[in-house]
Design goal:
- With about 500 residues, the protein is α/β, with parallel strands linked by helices.
- The protein has three domains: about 5-190, Class I glutamine amidotransferase (GATase) domain (Rossmann fold, 3-Layer(aba) Sandwich), CATH 3.40.50.880; about 200-385, Rossmann fold (3-Layer(aba) Sandwich); about 395-495, GMP Synthetase, Chain A, domain 3 (2-Layer Sandwich).
- It contains 14 helices and 18 strands.
- It has helices at about 15-25, 40-45, 85-90, 180-190, 200-215, 225-240, 255-265, 280-285, 290-315, 325-330, 365-375, 380-385, 405-420, 475-490; strands spanning about 5-10, 30-35, 50, 80, 95-110, 125-135, 145, 155-160, 165, 220, 245-250, 270-275, 320, 355-360, 430-445, 450-460, 470, 490-495.
- The strands form three sheets. A nine-stranded mixed beta sheet has the order 2-1-3-4-9-8-7-5-6, sandwiched between helices. Strands 12-11-10-13-14 form a five-stranded parallel beta sheet, with helices on both faces. Strands 15, 16, 17 and 18 form a four-stranded mixed beta sheet that branches.
- α6 packs across α11 (about 365-375).
- The longest helix is centred in the middle third of the chain and has 23 residues, at about 290-315.
- It is globular, with a radius of gyration of 26 Å.
- The two termini are about 45 Å apart.
- The structure holds xanthosine-5'-monophosphate.
- Xanthosine-5'-monophosphate binds near residues 342, 390, 431 and 508.
- Xanthosine-5'-monophosphate (XMP) binds near residues 390 and 431.
Length: about 500
């Protein structure tokens, strides 16, 4: 692809993806690679600049991840962040040691605004620090260009060699003007021109897909979510009706959603197959109330239905998966406890007769996937659709699932979403939905006693869905929603709002 390339070497820090996102936000293409990437490969990648990420180690530890010092002889600008900054100092002959005063969190910092890193910024600001060690001796040729009360080298530079380092994390929002500092490195030091945008990407991706697919047949599992929809749009632009999309409607979508997905693709020149498998799924789920069992049943059934449909088509050449870049970067560290077994359409290769997988979104972040969707002509509504779990409403109905409960929840959830959208709050609340609990309680309606379900409303704000806060929905709005739901939806006589954060809760209830 004809654009500049910035290489991010990953030393295991928790903000690695964030660095990559920020760089892309500056319209510069970048990729995250393991710190062990060989010099040969780096030369082949021909990066315009290199960024070392942070990491949990101490640069002076024998077993800490190191770089091949040869990297500093390539004539390529390097920016080290946190551990990456210390590693650069240590490798180039400076010294890093354990600090008496450790810094964590927002820290007042003084900047030398003559440095290109701080061009256009004021000489004081807040940075986000997170370190036990500090650089006590700079390598030859370096000067300190920022300091805090406890840290003499909060940033350093060797202008001649174009080596820079920041002890703090410019990539997190808590660092004021952090993105500008990164941009300064990219544009002022590396000479980046900002040639990464979705219009170019779409065209290049379409050409690449055409070249690869030629006259082959392509199969895609469409869930109606953002990723699979954008992948479908891209493939459809590239190879038109060589593409078949199978949309398995498991009957556990939000109200009207199955029809909306179908409608969204109605005018496209593709083969679109909708399988209405609601009854089949419901049959398998009858009598099951354990959340993990429900998830597994749905995952397996999904594969069966897809497989049966795919068999009718016969062998295909390519299977499309909607993998996006965060899935690629995530190191899959292994032994973490299974909190919930996620089901995503896409995990299907064993079951379908195909030759090769295409992952057209593999290099994109979610925001970029959305931009690409808009570029390809998908509606704002579809592209900004909030995340919806693969198992659908099955994990928002606590306990056993019945058609009646699905209907109740769909109606209640619809009202909740309608009211939130009316106030424009849907831009600020990242995910919101209703949950039908299995609890029934006594109420009074008119002059009569009721014994009906409790509905829970959940709304969260989050940047990464790994942690989340509950959204502060105004009481008056909650009152209106509550009143509408109990009046308009049968079998609900009590409504609660979920005020827990994640952790310790999760976003979904099951
Ligand atoms: P939790 O409930 O784990 O959810 O806090 C985090 C995010 O993941 C979504 N979620 C899923 N997405 N398949 C998906 O594709 C799943 O099985 C699944 N379960 C949860 C959830 O909606 C939230 O956005």
């Amino acid at each position: 692809m004809a654009h500049q390339y910035v290489l991010i070497l990953d030393f295991g820090g928790q903000y690695n993806q964030l660095i990559a996102r920020r760089v892309r936000e500056c319209n510069v293409y970048c990729e995250v690679k393991p710190y062990k990437t060989s010099i040969e490969e780096i030369k082949k990648l021909n990066p315009t600049g290199i960024i070392f990420t942070g990491g949990p180690n101490s640069a002076y530890d024998e077993n800490a991840p190191k770089v091949d010092p040869e990297i500093f002889n390539l004539g390529i600008p390097v920016l080290g962040l946190c551990y990456g900054c210390q590693l650069m100092a240590q490798t180039l002959g400076g010294n890093v040691k354990n600090a008496d005063a450790k810094e964590f969190g927002k820290t007042e910092t003084n900047f030398n605004t003559d440095s290109l890193l701080f061009k256009g910024l004021s000489d004081k600001g807040i940075t986000w620090m997170s370190h036990n060690d500090f650089i006590d001796v700079l390598p030859e040729g370096f000067t300190s260009v920022a300091h805090t009360a406890d840290c003499p080298v909060a940033a350093m530079e060797n202008v001649e060699k174009k080596f820079y380092g920041m002890q703090y994390h410019p990539e997190v929002n808590h660092t004021e003007n952090g993105t500008i500092m990164l941009k300064n490195f990219l544009y002022e030091v590396c000479g980046c021109v900002g040639d990464w945008n979705m219009e170019n990407y779409a065209q290049t991706a379409i050409n690449d897909i055409r070249e690869k697919v030629k006259d082959g047949k392509v199969l895609l599992a469409l869930s109606g979510g953002v990723d699979s929809s954008v992948a479908a749009a891209l493939l459809s632009k590239a190879v038109g009706n060589q593409l078949t999309c199978i949309f398995v409607d498991h009957g556990l979508m939000r109200k009207n959603e199955g029809d909306e997905v179908e409608a969204a693709f109605a005018d496209w020149d593709i083969n679109f197959i909708r399988v209405n498998a609601g009854e089949q799924f419901l049959g398998k789920l009858a009598g099951v109330d354990d959340p993990e069992t429900k998830r597994k049943i749905i995952g397996e059934e999904f594969i069966r239905v897809f497989e049966a449909e795919a068999k009718k088509i016969g062998a295909v050449d390519f299977l499309v998966q909607g993998t996006i870049y965060p899935d690629v970067i995530e190191s899959g560290a292994g032994d973490a406890a299974v909190i919930k077994s996620h089901h995503n359409v896409g995990g299907l290769p064993d079951y379908v007769d195909f030759k090769e997988i295409i992952e057209p979104l593999r290099l994109l972040f979610k925001d970029e996937v959305r931009q690409l969707g808009i570029e390809l002509g998908l509606s704002e509504k579809l592209v900004w659709r909030q995340p919806f779990p693969g198992p659908g409403l099955a994990i928002r109905i606590i306990g056993e699932i019945t058609q009646e409960k699905i209907d109740i929840l769909q109606d209640a959830d619809y009202i909740f979403r309608e009211e939130i959208a009316l106030t424009g709050l849907d831009k600020d609340i990242h995910q919101y939905f209703a949950v039908l609990t299995s609890m029934r309680s006594v109420g009074v309606m008119g002059d009569g006693r009721t014994y009906d379900y409790t509905l829970a409303l959940r709304g969260v704000t989050t940047t990464d869905f790994m942690t989340a806060d509950f959204a502060r929905i105004p009481y008056d709005l909650l009152a209106k929603i509550s009143s509408r739901i109990v009046n308009e939806v049968k079998c609900i006589n009590r409504i609660v709002y979920d005020v827990t954060t994640k952790p310790p809760s999760t976003i979904e209830w099951e």
